[in-house]
Design a protein that fits this description.
Blueprint: H1 3-11, E1 16-19, H2 23-30, H3 36-49, E2 52-55, H4 58-66, E3 102-107, H5 116-126, E4 131-136, H6 142-151, E5 158-160, H7 169-173, E6 178-180, H8 191-198, E7 202-204, H9 209-212, H10 217-232
Helix pairs in contact: 2-3
GO molecular function: glycosyltransferase activity
Keywords: Glycosyltransferase, Transferase
EC number: 2.4.-.-
Length: about 240
Amino acid sequence: MPAGIWAKTLFRLPLVLEVNSPLYDERKKYGGIALEKFAKWTEYYAWRNADHVLPVTEVLAHYIEQAGVPRERITVVPNGIDPTRFGTHSPILRDAKFANKRVIGSVGFCREWHHLDQVLDLIAQQHNPDLMLLSIGNGPVIDALKQQAQKLNMEDNFHSTGLVERDEMPYWLAQFDIALQPAVSPWASPLKVLEYMVSGKAIIAPNPSNIRELLTNQRVNRVRSFLLTSITSGRANTY
């Protein structure tokens, strides 16, 4: 989108550009591009002519450097959340349908490449009626997952909420025992991981470099230490 660069030039204003993905690569892989050379040129043009570029991961910063942007004009600013939205002074009760279940939960718009079908297969292989998958959100594969659960005789072990309001997220995260970060694009900074962390959830996630920017042994230990302090101070139900 070169319009931002033209506007900054016309009005003689500095332009700070946030970048959440290498859009050319993303659309080429997942959505298709009609004019490939033109699409790539516009992206590189915007990156190179911005006064400063703010990618959300170090992985993405490398893409931008490879396009010719000097490192001194790049600052990585990971995605973030407001932790106060997930605090409460009273415990959130489990919904009756999940009360006696061990719940593996996932948040987000579900696509085929998230491979939640494989999670359902793994749950079925455990032959444990108390283990279930809870999907928070919508997406094109939800109907297929429901059909798969039915074929596996697991209707009681899979639940999808559909779209939920933002303010309802603390309630739904409280239903999780284990939080799942499915397969993810290699440059993303997933908000769900941060929400899982501030909610004190055990997290299962893939191991690419961008996820390791959020989840490392040292940082996990810090979160555990923080939670332990909260528990011993009598504030465990806050997290």
